[in-house]
Give the backbone structure.
Amino acid sequence: MVERNAKGRVITVALAGQPNVGKSTVFNMLTGLSQHVGNWPGKTIEQRTGIYQYNGTTVHVVDLPGTYSLTANSLEERIARDYIIEERPDVVVVIVDASALERNLYLVAELLSLPIAVVLGLNMTDVAEQQGVRIDPHVLGAALGLPVVPMVASKNQGVRELVETLDRVIRGQATFAPNRPEIRLDHRVVLAELQRLVAGQVPDPYPEDWVALKLLEGDEEVTGMMRERLDGTHWEQAHAILKRHEDAILAVAGGRYEWIGRMVRAAVTRPRAGQVTLTDQVDQVATHPLWGLLLLLGILGLVFWLTYAIGAPLQELLDTYLVQAGAGWVRETLASAPGWLVGLLADGVIAGAGTVITFLPILVIFFAALGLLEDVGYMARAAYVMDRFMHLMGLHGKSFLPLFLGFGCNVPAVMGTRIIDSPRARLLTILVAPLVPCTARMAVVAVLAPLFFGQAAALVSLGLVGLSLVLLAVVGLLLHELVLGGEHVAFIMELPLYHVPNARTVGLSVWQRMVAFLKKAGSIILAVSVVVWALSALPGGDIETSYLAQIGRLLAPVGALMGLGWQMMVALLTSFVAKENTIATLGILYGAGEGGRGLGQALAGVLTPSAALAFLAVQVLFIPCAATVAVVRQETGSWRWTAFSVALLLVVSFTVGIAIYQAARLAGWGV
Amino acid sequence: MLQRLLEAVARGGTHTRSELARELRVSQELLQEMIDDLARRGYLRPMGEGCDERCAACLLHDTCAIGSPGRMWALTEKGLSLTRGTRNRIRSPGERARIRGERRK
Ligand SMILES: Nc1nc2c(ncn2[C@@H]2O[C@H](COP(=O)(O)OP(=O)(O)OP(=O)(O)O)[C@@H](O)[C@H]2O)c(=O)[nH]1
Ligand SMILES: [Mg+2]
């Protein structure tokens, strides 16, 4: 305490603060060369003490170890709090990092529950300024009820003001009326009860109120101490209270955060940097439950529209100059070769795999748009908005993440269900995962929709995505009600800042997807094209009596309900091997015909709009590709469930297809 | 404040930091402090970046369509039990039925 010796008063000041906030820098500035370096009694942690004189006062300064709080979590924290409680310095100067005020104020909140004078050294104001954080020291001081000294200790700024402030404090000339954090009302009663129980029992230097608070916080050291000090009945009562309020720490710490929030709201302004402001503003809309969903749909629609507006004419060009011209050239050059060879090359390879390749421009644009959205940071928002939507539908939880992966590819979606702990929930998520329209299916839609629907293609595509999502939500809702009900999942997610897309990143993602696509075109799709062509040419060379037709006619009765001929059913069937095969098969059956008409015109000749719509819907909802079915088998470990999954999707897709076609017919549309 | 944060999270589904900060009227920095605090005390569980840790084993992890959301935290059983019954948490009809069933037992 303040003493007087011959020369004048002698006081002790302790420097407290979180690690790396500049305590030692302040210490050095205050004490200069008159320092003593030793160890804390019995500890290996360095203790530095020093002296300065000011205005007739000798000030002993102690540099305390850096601590985040005053719980006895670590040696440093114990040293700091024991020193403050046992040695009772006249003033504690708490140094805080102004650029991380929220974090630093926690320690201040804890210090204020001790009966000591506190001065706040608001250090690193240069860093805060650099980051655009503005703190008004006067307002902060008024809010805290403490003297606040802004400083840049490393540049010796504010150190003199600190010394003056300390002088005023010890002379009782500075206001010290701290505004202390409070705990929630219900726990205040509990605290009062504890205070009553420990009253008169607390060993000497410890303040009673502080001990009661630390008991409530569950502080081990204080609890141990009081267990020894209190007599049996008092301890049992206290123990019973603590047992009942095990989570009281949340009320205590929560009160401190509440207090920090008030201080920060009063004194801190963060004119946010451009990127952060922009992100916040855009997210007001982009993550809004309603606007966010509409925006998502709008963006998807725009992506489709762009894809079609630019890609479709390019596809037609390629079709004319690559497929039609190529097939014609093969027929001319190989006029003398055996007929089957010409057929294989012109009608099988070129019309099949070749047609698929003409869709490269459409896919490049589609993938580029997706890559762009991903790189800008929008995809995480899309995930978030979809999650909200599903949550509103009653479906939420861990099944969401794997389902979202399904938009890329159903294979990782099925594998991603591994994060679901409950086996039943996992199984059902696997079963619905193929309802998510993957990029390959969307690519097929992207190709076929403009052939069928021209100007309205973007709208139709969007509708198909919407349809899948609604179905997914309906099935998901059933799933949630029947199986997932008990599982409660909640997440906090940090959304990345939006940023200017990087051409290289986007280019790379397009490139990777293109390579994967071309590899498929050169292998699976080529092979299937050859097989389909062979089946269409054997045994007699006439398609109508071919093996392919025979297979297709087996499915024709179902097809008839949707206005689809056997050719379309075969095209669907080949999509099982890989989704893109639908296009290849249609190319073989309808494209590169002798007449040299494009695939689009040929299809328009055989399909009514309502049948085309039904076809696209079935295509989107049909059994997933073989790769997905294989992982379904792998992940469920059961052929029965795999078969069930396939059957489920067959039923769902055909039901929807038939419903669309029949409804359209009843309405008299597109027949 | 911490209790209110937990209750907001426990309503279920995914929450963003900015949404929660706005709801609790605190700065995003303070919200992050509270999240870290709750995670230290075991009421929230930090998950790996992007998808769950187990996702990392996935072959297609690199071309994952979800992009890269930042860090995620999941509410733990401990966090959930603290909020249970304190507020009218949104429940699905199935969940409510299950709870009624449990009460009857
Ligand atoms: N920009 C800036 N840097 C500072 C300021 N004050 C201190 N520093 C720097 O921050 C770093 C840490 O300072 P220290 O004084 O060692 O911090 P400390 O609080 O003693 O750290 P611990 O003892 O580890 O808890 C040093 O590199 C200082 O030069 C300041 O006001 N502005
Ligand atoms: Mg130091």
Q: What stands out?
A: The domain at 2-104 of chain B is CATH 1.10.10.10 (Arc Repressor Mutant, subunit A). Strands of chain B lie at 13-16, 44-47, 72-75. The pocket of magnesium ion (ligand 2) is lined by residues A 23-24, 63 (CB under 6 Å). Helices of chain B lie at 2-10, 17-24, 28-40, 77-83, 93-104.
